[in-house]
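ENTRY TYPE: paired fold submission
RECORD: A
CONTENT: sequence, then structure tokens
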Amino acid sequence: SKDLTVPRRRELSAAFTQLLQQPAQAPELVASLQEILQRHGAERQVVREALSLCRALASAVPVQLLLQHQLDKIVQVGLQAEDLRELAVSALADWVDRLYPAKKGGGNAGKGGAATATPPAMHDICRFTAMVARLVGTCIFDAEDQQAYSFHRQVGELLCDLCTGHASSLCQLMPCAELAVVWGALLHMLRYPSTTVQLDAAFGMLSLARGQAGGWTRGEGSPPRPPLEQLVGVLSVLSMKLESLPGAMSAERSAWLLRCLGPASARQPLGTFQEWCQMLSVSHSFELLADGDVERGRAFGTLKTRCNELLNEICKASPSHGISAAEGFGALCRFAGALVARALAGDASSPEGWAAEFECAASLVESCGLAALRLAEKQGTKESLEAVLHPALSFLKQVSVEAVSFNPALKHKRLEFFSTR
């Protein structure tokens, strides 16, 4: 196709578009591809050529036509074969490029590609998103495989793009079980030892939380996202400055941080929290080799901001979310209060104590508390104000609890917290 003239390319693109748009012809094309795979699916080269065709079609016809005729099922075949997975993900990436040309810098139109004129049907997008989410669940970090890491980054970015592009529609139309799979995939990404992957996960979660701004209304059960208690533990660890932690950490402290993090998305089981920090350093080195200079501090700052925004969105003040509820600002205060209590009870003999854990837990409530209080004041009802003030008071009581001895650094952090109130 590179040797064809521009007019000839346009003619071929128009012919492909017409072929897929005609109901009498499109099923024949799809059926022929499916029949080839059924007869010769065991031959890797046949599947490889079919995947290449799926990737090329994105440059010739609108992606919604490919989804409408379920050509993504061919891509799914490639995702199940390890040696074809990279090509399949490249095809998915090209499709997402066509779905969101503006997000990718608007360069698709200038490249002669077929930009999506009208949005795809939402049931196709839901199916497509669920497929990518299941693929994310197979991404396990390996410190010795840089190529796999690049693949995992690409898959995580695909899921993030789909969540940010269709958050409201996914929350409204996607079956609860499949939406839970998407949330689970994003949680899997949060526990992947890479700041870049974690940032995509936090942004995808934030988009879904905003898309569900009206609250969970389908049925009386909990929303399909992970429980707030689970999220608070993970986000507290990700929001912590690793440089502030001691190099030689006690086994008790290491086990506590790993418990808050949950099962890491890594091939090697974690015995200590220092091993998690080492994996983060390895993934950062992968990015330095692939992308050049990557400012780690800026990425961490952005991740911490996204974590706070996510909790702000989830924990908006609601009179129905009392202090004993499993969700809402009251629940956040209760869970963060448990983190504070554990930090205050930490080893007082160490130079810094558990000051980093205390500061992180307090900052989570501080950020969400200000946003929740503004919203409650805007609502102007007694119930809304009580839904914020009562949990906040309980949290402050937990922070101000007296002890026989306090680590000086921890005592200083606590004074800092009260001085800003």
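RECORD: B
CONTENT: sequence, then structure tokens
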Amino acid sequence: AGTLISDDCLHGVITYSGNLLEYLDISNCKNITSEYVSQISLTSNHLVVFKANNMTHISAEAFSEVVKFNENIEVLSLAKCVRIHSEFIDSLCKYVLDLVDINLSSCWHISNKDILKLIHNFPNVESITLPK
């Protein structure tokens, strides 16, 4: 399942909200493209919560662009985003300041080394949901 929300619709929401947007959940929005996800931070760079569960078609590079310009993300949920890999974890650790909750369930390309890197870089993390 999914929604009919597309890049154009999301663009309207983000343009209207501008830099006031702190919570964005695009989970299950199958009509949103990697190209647009990578551009989210051009108009919205104050996200505290970003959720994109079950976005299997979105590239890890697109998600890396979101975290690169949203250093204050505290909650990140990318469950079932199967294209997430070590390079994304590197970006996350490089750009995000204080992650509190991260969900990476069913992200099969995450290694034990990546998990240790998350724990080391985010000592205040309260919840980590890992691949099962």
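NOTES ON RECORD B: The two ends are 22 Å apart (CA to CA). The chain has five helices and five strands.
STATUS: closed
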